[in-house]
Amino acid sequence: MSNTPHFLSGDPKSIFNLPALVAFLAVFIVHRIWTTVNKLRLVNHIPGPRPPFSPLGLPGVLIPTSWWNTSQDVHWVRRFSLYTNNETVSIVPFLIGKPLIWTSNLNVARQVASGIRTGFFKPTWSARALLLWGMNLFAAEGDVWRKHRRVMGPAFNNELYRLVWSQTLKTYHDLVTSEQWEEKGTVIVPVIQEITFKLALLIIGSCAFGFSFQWDEPPRTSNGSLSVQEAIRTVADTYMLRVFAPKWVLKLPFKKIQHSNAAYEAMALFMKEQVIARQSEIQDNTRKDAFSLLVKANEQEDSKHKLSDDELIGNVYIMLFAGHETTAHTLAATLGFLALNQDVQDEILEQIKEVVGYNRDPEFEDYHKLNKVLAAFFEALRLFPSGHLMIREASEDTVLQIPNPRGQEGTTPFIIPKGQVVVVDMVGVQYNPRYYDDPTSYKPSRWHGISNDSEDFTAFSVGPRACIGRKFATTEAVCFLSMLLRDWKVMPKLNAGESEGQWRNRVLDANLVLTLGVRDVPLIFVPRK
Protein backbone atom coordinates (compact mmCIF):
# COMPACT_ATOMS: atom_id res chain seq x y z
CA MET A 1 0.00 0.00 0.00
CA SER A 2 1.43 3.40 -0.99
CA ASN A 3 2.30 5.89 1.75
CA THR A 4 2.02 8.84 -0.66
CA PRO A 5 -0.51 11.41 0.67
CA HIS A 6 -3.73 11.26 -1.28
CA PHE A 7 -3.66 14.96 -2.27
CA LEU A 8 -0.13 14.59 -3.71
CA SER A 9 -0.88 11.60 -5.84
CA GLY A 10 -1.41 11.74 -9.56
CA ASP A 11 -4.90 10.30 -9.16
CA PRO A 12 -7.32 12.68 -10.94
CA LYS A 13 -9.91 11.90 -8.21
CA SER A 14 -7.65 13.26 -5.44
CA ILE A 15 -8.54 16.54 -3.72
CA PHE A 16 -5.43 18.27 -5.11
CA ASN A 17 -3.85 16.94 -8.23
CA LEU A 18 -0.15 17.79 -7.95
CA PRO A 19 0.59 18.31 -11.67
CA ALA A 20 -2.52 20.49 -11.99
CA LEU A 21 -1.53 22.47 -8.91
CA VAL A 22 1.99 23.04 -10.26
CA ALA A 23 0.57 24.10 -13.61
CA PHE A 24 -1.84 26.53 -11.90
CA LEU A 25 0.96 28.08 -9.85
CA ALA A 26 3.15 28.42 -12.93
CA VAL A 27 0.37 30.19 -14.84
CA PHE A 28 -0.36 32.43 -11.84
CA ILE A 29 3.30 33.43 -11.44
CA VAL A 30 3.70 34.12 -15.17
CA HIS A 31 0.50 36.19 -15.12
CA ARG A 32 1.70 38.17 -12.08
CA ILE A 33 5.07 38.82 -13.73
CA TRP A 34 3.40 39.94 -16.96
CA THR A 35 0.97 42.20 -15.06
CA THR A 36 3.76 43.70 -12.96
CA VAL A 37 5.86 44.39 -16.06
CA ASN A 38 2.91 46.26 -17.57
CA LYS A 39 2.46 48.22 -14.33
CA LEU A 40 6.15 49.17 -14.37
CA ARG A 41 5.77 50.39 -17.95
CA LEU A 42 2.89 52.66 -16.89
CA VAL A 43 5.15 54.40 -14.34
CA ASN A 44 8.15 54.64 -16.69
CA HIS A 45 10.07 52.03 -14.64
CA ILE A 46 10.69 54.63 -11.91
CA PRO A 47 12.45 52.83 -9.04
CA GLY A 48 10.67 52.28 -5.74
CA PRO A 49 9.04 49.71 -3.42
CA ARG A 50 7.34 46.62 -4.86
CA PRO A 51 4.88 45.51 -2.15
CA PRO A 52 2.17 42.85 -2.53
CA PHE A 53 -0.68 45.33 -1.98
CA SER A 54 -1.35 49.01 -2.63
CA PRO A 55 -1.08 51.21 0.48
CA LEU A 56 -4.20 53.10 -0.69
CA GLY A 57 -6.59 50.17 -1.16
CA LEU A 58 -7.74 46.94 0.42
CA PRO A 59 -6.17 45.08 2.09
CA GLY A 60 -3.19 47.45 2.37
CA VAL A 61 -5.06 50.16 4.31
CA LEU A 62 -6.03 47.60 6.95
CA ILE A 63 -2.47 46.50 7.68
CA PRO A 64 -1.55 48.24 10.95
CA THR A 65 2.15 48.79 10.36
CA SER A 66 4.52 49.09 7.45
CA TRP A 67 4.79 45.40 6.61
CA TRP A 68 6.63 44.98 3.33
CA ASN A 69 5.98 48.61 2.31
CA THR A 70 2.25 47.94 2.24
CA SER A 71 0.38 49.87 4.93
CA GLN A 72 -0.93 53.41 4.55
CA ASP A 73 1.77 54.73 6.91
CA VAL A 74 4.68 53.49 4.76
CA HIS A 75 5.66 57.08 3.95
CA TRP A 76 6.01 57.87 7.66
CA VAL A 77 7.81 54.69 8.68
CA ARG A 78 10.24 55.02 5.74
CA ARG A 79 10.48 58.81 5.69
CA PHE A 80 14.27 58.64 6.11
CA SER A 81 14.85 55.98 3.45
CA LEU A 82 12.06 56.06 0.86
CA TYR A 83 13.62 58.94 -1.10
CA THR A 84 17.32 58.26 -0.52
CA ASN A 85 18.16 58.18 -4.24
CA ASN A 86 15.16 59.82 -5.89
CA GLU A 87 12.58 62.36 -4.75
CA THR A 88 9.97 60.69 -6.96
CA VAL A 89 9.46 56.93 -6.73
CA SER A 90 6.89 54.40 -7.86
CA ILE A 91 5.00 51.94 -5.67
CA VAL A 92 4.04 48.96 -7.82
CA PRO A 93 2.06 46.19 -6.05
CA PHE A 94 2.74 42.76 -7.49
CA LEU A 95 -0.49 41.18 -6.20
CA ILE A 96 -3.33 43.69 -5.75
CA GLY A 97 -3.53 47.36 -6.65
CA LYS A 98 -2.69 49.86 -9.35
CA PRO A 99 0.79 51.35 -9.72
CA LEU A 100 1.33 54.68 -7.96
CA ILE A 101 3.79 57.51 -8.40
CA TRP A 102 4.85 59.00 -5.06
CA THR A 103 6.76 62.26 -4.86
CA SER A 104 8.41 64.39 -2.20
CA ASN A 105 9.21 67.17 -4.68
CA LEU A 106 7.37 70.50 -4.51
CA ASN A 107 7.87 71.19 -8.20
CA VAL A 108 5.93 68.02 -9.03
CA ALA A 109 3.36 68.84 -6.34
CA ARG A 110 2.62 72.19 -7.96
CA GLN A 111 2.30 70.58 -11.39
CA VAL A 112 -0.41 68.19 -10.20
CA ALA A 113 -2.22 70.50 -7.74
CA SER A 114 -5.82 70.75 -8.92
CA GLY A 115 -6.62 73.82 -10.94
CA ILE A 116 -8.07 74.98 -14.22
CA ARG A 117 -4.77 74.69 -16.08
CA THR A 118 -3.63 71.29 -14.82
CA GLY A 119 -4.39 67.88 -16.28
CA PHE A 120 -5.03 66.39 -12.83
CA PHE A 121 -8.02 66.16 -10.50
CA LYS A 122 -8.75 64.88 -7.02
CA PRO A 123 -10.43 61.45 -7.39
CA THR A 124 -13.61 60.97 -5.38
CA TRP A 125 -12.41 57.68 -3.91
CA SER A 126 -9.51 59.46 -2.20
CA ALA A 127 -11.98 61.39 -0.02
CA ARG A 128 -14.54 58.65 0.62
CA ALA A 129 -14.18 58.96 4.37
CA LEU A 130 -15.21 62.62 4.23
CA LEU A 131 -18.23 61.98 2.00
CA LEU A 132 -20.20 60.12 4.66
CA TRP A 133 -22.63 63.05 4.99
CA GLY A 134 -22.42 64.74 1.62
CA MET A 135 -20.22 66.57 -0.85
CA ASN A 136 -18.05 69.27 0.70
CA LEU A 137 -15.25 71.71 -0.01
CA PHE A 138 -12.54 69.17 0.83
CA ALA A 139 -13.85 66.40 -1.45
CA ALA A 140 -15.25 68.49 -4.30
CA GLU A 141 -13.47 68.97 -7.63
CA GLY A 142 -13.64 71.31 -10.61
CA ASP A 143 -16.78 73.43 -10.92
CA VAL A 144 -18.29 71.75 -7.84
CA TRP A 145 -15.27 72.80 -5.77
CA ARG A 146 -15.53 76.36 -7.08
CA LYS A 147 -19.22 76.43 -6.10
CA HIS A 148 -18.40 75.29 -2.55
CA ARG A 149 -15.46 77.70 -2.30
CA ARG A 150 -17.64 80.58 -3.48
CA VAL A 151 -20.14 79.95 -0.66
CA MET A 152 -17.60 79.07 2.04
CA GLY A 153 -15.11 81.86 1.34
CA PRO A 154 -17.01 84.87 2.74
CA ALA A 155 -17.34 83.19 6.16
CA PHE A 156 -13.56 83.29 6.67
CA ASN A 157 -12.68 86.94 7.25
CA ASN A 158 -10.95 89.21 9.76
CA GLU A 159 -14.12 89.62 11.80
CA LEU A 160 -14.17 85.86 12.31
CA TYR A 161 -10.47 85.76 13.23
CA ARG A 162 -10.97 88.52 15.77
CA LEU A 163 -13.74 86.40 17.30
CA VAL A 164 -11.41 83.38 17.34
CA TRP A 165 -8.83 85.40 19.29
CA SER A 166 -11.29 86.63 21.93
CA GLN A 167 -12.86 83.19 22.37
CA THR A 168 -9.45 81.55 22.70
CA LEU A 169 -8.55 84.00 25.48
CA LYS A 170 -11.82 83.24 27.25
CA THR A 171 -11.34 79.49 26.89
CA TYR A 172 -7.76 79.63 28.21
CA HIS A 173 -8.89 81.44 31.36
CA ASP A 174 -11.80 79.04 31.70
CA LEU A 175 -9.38 76.07 31.44
CA VAL A 176 -7.05 77.41 34.15
CA THR A 177 -9.96 78.17 36.48
CA SER A 178 -11.96 74.98 35.91
CA GLU A 179 -8.93 72.68 36.19
CA GLN A 180 -7.65 74.67 39.22
CA TRP A 181 -4.17 74.99 37.75
CA GLU A 182 -3.18 77.95 39.91
CA GLU A 183 -4.21 76.14 43.10
CA LYS A 184 -2.26 73.04 42.09
CA GLY A 185 0.98 74.89 41.35
CA THR A 186 2.85 72.32 39.28
CA VAL A 187 0.38 70.62 36.92
CA ILE A 188 0.88 67.14 35.47
CA VAL A 189 -1.07 66.39 32.29
CA PRO A 190 -0.70 62.71 31.26
CA VAL A 191 -2.15 63.34 27.76
CA ILE A 192 -2.04 66.94 26.53
CA GLN A 193 -4.38 66.05 23.65
CA GLU A 194 -7.21 65.83 26.20
CA ILE A 195 -6.76 69.59 26.61
CA THR A 196 -5.90 70.58 23.03
CA PHE A 197 -8.80 68.65 21.51
CA LYS A 198 -11.26 70.10 24.01
CA LEU A 199 -9.88 73.61 23.44
CA ALA A 200 -10.10 73.31 19.65
CA LEU A 201 -13.65 71.95 19.77
CA LEU A 202 -14.85 74.74 22.07
CA ILE A 203 -13.31 77.35 19.76
CA ILE A 204 -14.95 75.74 16.73
CA GLY A 205 -18.23 75.51 18.63
CA SER A 206 -18.25 79.18 19.59
CA CYS A 207 -16.69 80.73 16.47
CA ALA A 208 -17.96 78.43 13.74
CA PHE A 209 -21.41 77.72 15.21
CA GLY A 210 -22.08 80.38 17.81
CA PHE A 211 -22.49 77.98 20.74
CA SER A 212 -21.96 79.24 24.28
CA PHE A 213 -20.27 76.60 26.43
CA GLN A 214 -17.93 76.47 29.39
CA TRP A 215 -14.78 74.34 29.79
CA ASP A 216 -16.56 71.97 32.18
CA GLU A 217 -19.71 71.91 29.99
CA PRO A 218 -18.66 70.94 26.43
CA PRO A 219 -21.20 70.82 23.58
CA ARG A 220 -23.26 67.64 23.42
CA THR A 221 -25.29 65.97 20.71
CA SER A 222 -29.05 66.45 20.64
CA ASN A 223 -29.98 63.50 22.85
CA GLY A 224 -27.18 64.32 25.30
CA SER A 225 -25.71 60.80 25.15
CA LEU A 226 -22.36 61.91 23.71
CA SER A 227 -20.31 65.05 23.67
CA VAL A 228 -19.73 66.37 20.17
CA GLN A 229 -16.02 65.70 20.68
CA GLU A 230 -16.69 62.05 21.61
CA ALA A 231 -18.91 61.62 18.56
CA ILE A 232 -16.35 63.17 16.19
CA ARG A 233 -13.54 61.10 17.69
CA THR A 234 -15.53 57.85 17.39
CA VAL A 235 -16.54 58.58 13.78
CA ALA A 236 -12.91 59.40 12.89
CA ASP A 237 -11.53 56.30 14.63
CA THR A 238 -13.99 53.96 12.89
CA TYR A 239 -14.14 55.65 9.49
CA MET A 240 -12.62 52.67 7.62
CA LEU A 241 -15.33 50.45 9.06
CA ARG A 242 -18.03 52.75 7.68
CA VAL A 243 -16.29 53.33 4.34
CA PHE A 244 -15.17 49.80 3.47
CA ALA A 245 -17.41 47.38 5.40
CA PRO A 246 -20.59 46.01 3.77
CA LYS A 247 -23.84 47.28 5.29
CA TRP A 248 -24.63 43.98 7.02
CA VAL A 249 -21.45 44.29 9.09
CA LEU A 250 -22.76 47.54 10.60
CA LYS A 251 -25.75 45.58 11.95
CA LEU A 252 -23.67 43.12 13.96
CA PRO A 253 -24.18 43.28 17.76
CA PHE A 254 -20.56 44.09 18.63
CA LYS A 255 -19.93 46.90 21.09
CA LYS A 256 -17.49 48.82 18.86
CA ILE A 257 -19.86 48.67 15.89
CA GLN A 258 -22.87 49.73 17.95
CA HIS A 259 -20.89 52.61 19.51
CA SER A 260 -19.83 53.72 16.02
CA ASN A 261 -23.45 53.59 14.83
CA ALA A 262 -24.62 55.65 17.80
CA ALA A 263 -21.92 58.28 17.19
CA TYR A 264 -22.71 58.43 13.47
CA GLU A 265 -26.45 58.83 14.06
CA ALA A 266 -25.90 61.46 16.77
CA MET A 267 -23.57 63.46 14.50
CA ALA A 268 -25.99 63.22 11.56
CA LEU A 269 -28.87 64.53 13.66
CA PHE A 270 -26.71 67.26 15.24
CA MET A 271 -25.54 68.58 11.86
CA LYS A 272 -29.01 68.46 10.30
CA GLU A 273 -30.38 70.46 13.21
CA GLN A 274 -27.63 73.05 12.78
CA VAL A 275 -28.59 73.59 9.13
CA ILE A 276 -32.30 73.91 9.94
CA ALA A 277 -31.62 76.32 12.83
CA ARG A 278 -29.45 78.63 10.71
CA GLN A 279 -31.91 78.66 7.84
CA SER A 280 -34.68 79.75 10.20
CA GLU A 281 -32.45 82.54 11.58
CA ILE A 282 -31.27 83.80 8.21
CA GLN A 283 -32.48 87.36 8.88
CA ASP A 284 -30.58 87.58 12.18
CA ASN A 285 -27.73 89.90 11.24
CA THR A 286 -26.22 89.75 14.73
CA ARG A 287 -24.86 86.23 14.25
CA LYS A 288 -21.22 86.40 13.18
CA ASP A 289 -20.23 82.74 13.48
CA ALA A 290 -18.81 81.10 10.36
CA PHE A 291 -21.65 78.69 9.76
CA SER A 292 -24.35 81.37 9.99
CA LEU A 293 -22.41 83.44 7.45
CA LEU A 294 -22.07 80.36 5.24
CA VAL A 295 -25.82 79.62 5.31
CA LYS A 296 -26.65 83.27 4.71
CA ALA A 297 -24.27 83.44 1.73
CA ASN A 298 -25.81 80.24 0.37
CA GLU A 299 -29.37 81.60 0.62
CA GLN A 300 -28.30 84.61 -1.43
CA GLU A 301 -27.01 82.45 -4.30
CA ASP A 302 -29.04 81.64 -7.41
CA SER A 303 -30.18 78.07 -7.91
CA LYS A 304 -27.15 77.27 -10.07
CA HIS A 305 -24.63 78.04 -7.34
CA LYS A 306 -26.68 77.20 -4.24
CA LEU A 307 -25.62 74.27 -2.06
CA SER A 308 -28.13 71.58 -1.13
CA ASP A 309 -28.88 70.73 2.51
CA ASP A 310 -26.73 67.59 2.17
CA GLU A 311 -23.85 69.70 0.89
CA LEU A 312 -24.28 72.13 3.79
CA ILE A 313 -24.22 69.18 6.19
CA GLY A 314 -21.10 67.85 4.46
CA ASN A 315 -19.40 71.19 5.08
CA VAL A 316 -20.56 71.25 8.72
CA TYR A 317 -18.66 68.01 9.24
CA ILE A 318 -15.56 69.36 7.52
CA MET A 319 -15.62 72.45 9.74
CA LEU A 320 -16.09 70.35 12.87
CA PHE A 321 -13.62 67.63 11.99
CA ALA A 322 -10.83 69.42 10.13
CA GLY A 323 -11.20 72.56 12.22
CA HIS A 324 -10.58 70.82 15.50
CA GLU A 325 -8.62 67.69 14.62
CA THR A 326 -5.68 69.31 12.84
CA THR A 327 -5.28 72.25 15.23
CA ALA A 328 -5.46 70.00 18.30
CA HIS A 329 -2.85 67.57 16.96
CA THR A 330 -0.46 70.38 16.01
CA LEU A 331 -0.81 72.19 19.35
CA ALA A 332 0.03 68.92 21.11
CA ALA A 333 3.10 68.42 18.92
CA THR A 334 4.17 72.06 19.43
CA LEU A 335 4.08 71.74 23.21
CA GLY A 336 5.92 68.42 23.02
CA PHE A 337 8.75 69.92 20.98
CA LEU A 338 8.94 73.04 23.17
CA ALA A 339 9.17 70.85 26.28
CA LEU A 340 12.36 69.35 24.82
CA ASN A 341 13.77 72.63 23.55
CA GLN A 342 13.96 74.98 26.52
CA ASP A 343 16.17 77.43 24.64
CA VAL A 344 13.47 77.86 21.99
CA GLN A 345 10.82 78.16 24.69
CA ASP A 346 12.86 80.88 26.43
CA GLU A 347 13.31 82.80 23.17
CA ILE A 348 9.56 82.73 22.55
CA LEU A 349 8.88 83.83 26.13
CA GLU A 350 11.10 86.87 25.67
CA GLN A 351 9.11 87.93 22.61
CA ILE A 352 5.80 87.46 24.44
CA LYS A 353 7.08 89.57 27.35
CA GLU A 354 8.32 92.25 24.97
CA VAL A 355 5.09 92.44 22.96
CA VAL A 356 2.48 91.77 25.66
CA GLY A 357 4.12 91.90 29.07
CA TYR A 358 2.35 90.68 32.21
CA ASN A 359 -0.13 93.51 32.77
CA ARG A 360 -2.56 92.64 29.99
CA ASP A 361 -3.72 89.81 27.80
CA PRO A 362 -2.54 89.65 24.17
CA GLU A 363 -4.82 91.35 21.67
CA PHE A 364 -5.66 90.45 18.08
CA GLU A 365 -3.52 93.38 16.92
CA ASP A 366 -0.50 91.63 18.51
CA TYR A 367 -0.83 88.63 16.17
CA HIS A 368 1.72 89.77 13.58
CA LYS A 369 4.20 90.80 16.30
CA LEU A 370 4.22 87.31 17.83
CA ASN A 371 5.94 85.74 14.84
CA LYS A 372 8.11 83.45 16.96
CA VAL A 373 5.01 81.90 18.51
CA LEU A 374 3.63 81.30 15.02
CA ALA A 375 6.99 79.86 13.93
CA ALA A 376 6.87 77.30 16.75
CA PHE A 377 3.44 76.14 15.54
CA PHE A 378 4.57 76.10 11.90
CA GLU A 379 7.60 73.96 12.66
CA ALA A 380 5.57 71.38 14.59
CA LEU A 381 3.11 71.20 11.68
CA ARG A 382 6.03 70.74 9.28
CA LEU A 383 7.25 67.73 11.24
CA PHE A 384 3.72 66.30 11.61
CA PRO A 385 1.75 67.54 8.57
CA SER A 386 -1.92 66.77 9.26
CA GLY A 387 -2.82 66.47 5.60
CA HIS A 388 -0.11 63.95 4.87
CA LEU A 389 -1.10 62.85 1.36
CA MET A 390 -2.31 64.83 -1.66
CA ILE A 391 -3.77 62.38 -4.18
CA ARG A 392 -4.33 63.37 -7.79
CA GLU A 393 -5.32 61.47 -10.95
CA ALA A 394 -4.44 62.36 -14.53
CA SER A 395 -7.54 63.42 -16.48
CA GLU A 396 -5.70 63.03 -19.77
CA ASP A 397 -2.40 61.83 -21.14
CA THR A 398 0.11 64.40 -19.99
CA VAL A 399 3.78 64.97 -19.20
CA LEU A 400 5.37 65.72 -15.83
CA GLN A 401 8.70 67.47 -15.66
CA ILE A 402 10.34 65.63 -12.78
CA PRO A 403 13.43 67.33 -11.30
CA ASN A 404 16.58 65.26 -11.40
CA PRO A 405 17.98 63.90 -8.12
CA ARG A 406 19.46 66.39 -5.68
CA GLY A 407 22.81 67.66 -6.90
CA GLN A 408 21.85 67.33 -10.57
CA GLU A 409 20.49 70.21 -12.62
CA GLY A 410 17.48 70.07 -14.90
CA THR A 411 14.37 67.93 -15.19
CA THR A 412 13.39 64.71 -16.95
CA PRO A 413 10.04 64.49 -18.79
CA PHE A 414 7.83 61.54 -17.87
CA ILE A 415 4.73 60.59 -19.83
CA ILE A 416 1.77 60.15 -17.47
CA PRO A 417 -1.14 58.20 -19.00
CA LYS A 418 -4.77 59.11 -18.33
CA GLY A 419 -5.93 57.53 -15.07
CA GLN A 420 -2.48 57.36 -13.48
CA VAL A 421 -2.50 58.34 -9.80
CA VAL A 422 0.21 60.66 -8.49
CA VAL A 423 0.56 60.96 -4.71
CA VAL A 424 2.26 63.98 -3.20
CA ASP A 425 3.78 62.74 0.05
CA MET A 426 3.63 65.79 2.32
CA VAL A 427 5.72 63.97 4.93
CA GLY A 428 8.39 63.44 2.29
CA VAL A 429 8.16 67.09 1.22
CA GLN A 430 8.59 68.37 4.78
CA TYR A 431 11.57 66.08 5.43
CA ASN A 432 13.23 66.77 2.05
CA PRO A 433 16.78 68.14 2.52
CA ARG A 434 16.39 70.03 -0.79
CA TYR A 435 14.09 72.43 1.06
CA TYR A 436 15.20 72.21 4.69
CA ASP A 437 18.60 72.16 6.31
CA ASP A 438 18.69 69.41 8.97
CA PRO A 439 15.04 68.53 8.25
CA THR A 440 14.58 66.13 11.17
CA SER A 441 15.34 68.80 13.78
CA TYR A 442 12.83 71.14 15.38
CA LYS A 443 13.98 74.62 14.32
CA PRO A 444 11.24 77.27 14.47
CA SER A 445 13.78 79.89 13.41
CA ARG A 446 13.25 78.64 9.82
CA TRP A 447 9.98 80.55 9.84
CA HIS A 448 11.04 83.79 11.53
CA GLY A 449 9.93 86.60 9.26
CA ILE A 450 7.62 84.34 7.24
CA SER A 451 4.05 85.67 7.08
CA ASN A 452 1.02 83.53 7.77
CA ASP A 453 0.01 83.61 4.09
CA SER A 454 3.45 82.86 2.64
CA GLU A 455 3.59 80.05 0.07
CA ASP A 456 7.03 79.18 1.44
CA PHE A 457 5.21 77.28 4.18
CA THR A 458 3.65 74.26 2.48
CA ALA A 459 2.43 72.03 5.33
CA PHE A 460 -1.09 73.47 4.83
CA SER A 461 -0.89 72.02 1.28
CA VAL A 462 -0.07 73.78 -1.98
CA GLY A 463 -1.94 75.22 -4.92
CA PRO A 464 -5.42 76.75 -5.15
CA ARG A 465 -6.87 74.13 -2.78
CA ALA A 466 -4.66 75.06 0.18
CA CYS A 467 -6.46 74.97 3.53
CA ILE A 468 -9.23 77.56 3.83
CA GLY A 469 -8.99 77.42 7.63
CA ARG A 470 -5.29 78.28 7.80
CA LYS A 471 -5.74 81.72 9.41
CA PHE A 472 -8.40 80.35 11.76
CA ALA A 473 -5.97 77.70 13.05
CA THR A 474 -2.96 79.99 13.36
CA THR A 475 -4.97 82.71 15.13
CA GLU A 476 -6.17 80.20 17.72
CA ALA A 477 -2.69 78.71 18.12
CA VAL A 478 -0.82 82.01 18.52
CA CYS A 479 -3.30 83.31 21.10
CA PHE A 480 -3.38 80.10 23.16
CA LEU A 481 0.38 79.49 23.08
CA SER A 482 1.13 83.12 23.96
CA MET A 483 -1.01 82.91 27.10
CA LEU A 484 0.17 79.43 28.08
CA LEU A 485 3.89 80.01 27.57
CA ARG A 486 3.82 83.37 29.33
CA ASP A 487 2.27 81.82 32.44
CA TRP A 488 3.72 78.29 32.46
CA LYS A 489 7.00 76.56 31.71
CA VAL A 490 6.44 73.36 29.72
CA MET A 491 8.48 70.24 30.55
CA PRO A 492 8.29 66.59 29.44
CA LYS A 493 6.72 64.11 31.87
CA LEU A 494 9.37 61.39 31.92
CA ASN A 495 8.88 57.80 33.02
CA ALA A 496 11.12 56.48 35.79
CA GLY A 497 14.70 56.29 34.50
CA GLU A 498 13.74 57.72 31.11
CA SER A 499 15.97 60.26 29.33
CA GLU A 500 14.62 63.12 27.23
CA GLY A 501 15.90 61.36 24.11
CA GLN A 502 13.97 58.23 25.04
CA TRP A 503 10.89 60.34 25.76
CA ARG A 504 11.11 61.89 22.30
CA ASN A 505 11.41 58.50 20.59
CA ARG A 506 8.44 57.17 22.57
CA VAL A 507 6.15 60.17 22.35
CA LEU A 508 6.96 62.25 19.27
CA ASP A 509 5.99 59.57 16.79
CA ALA A 510 3.08 59.36 14.39
CA ASN A 511 -0.52 58.55 15.21
CA LEU A 512 -2.18 58.14 11.84
CA VAL A 513 -5.94 57.82 11.46
CA LEU A 514 -7.66 60.20 9.03
CA THR A 515 -5.01 62.81 9.68
CA LEU A 516 -1.41 62.58 10.85
CA GLY A 517 -0.91 63.51 14.47
CA VAL A 518 1.41 62.80 17.35
CA ARG A 519 1.08 60.08 19.98
CA ASP A 520 -0.18 60.87 23.50
CA VAL A 521 2.04 63.65 24.89
CA PRO A 522 2.59 63.67 28.71
CA LEU A 523 3.69 67.09 30.02
CA ILE A 524 4.38 69.03 33.20
CA PHE A 525 3.47 72.70 33.56
CA VAL A 526 5.36 74.78 36.12
CA PRO A 527 4.11 78.30 36.99
CA ARG A 528 6.58 81.02 35.96
CA LYS A 529 5.76 83.27 38.90
From TrEMBL:
Keywords: Heme, Iron, Membrane, Metal-binding, Monooxygenase, Oxidoreductase, Transmembrane, Transmembrane helix. SUPFAM superfamilies: Cytochrome P450. The keyword Magnesium does not apply. The chain crosses the membrane at residues 15-34. It holds the Pfam family p450. It comes from the Eukaryota. The keyword Heme applies. Belongs to the cytochrome P450 family. This is Cytochrome P450.
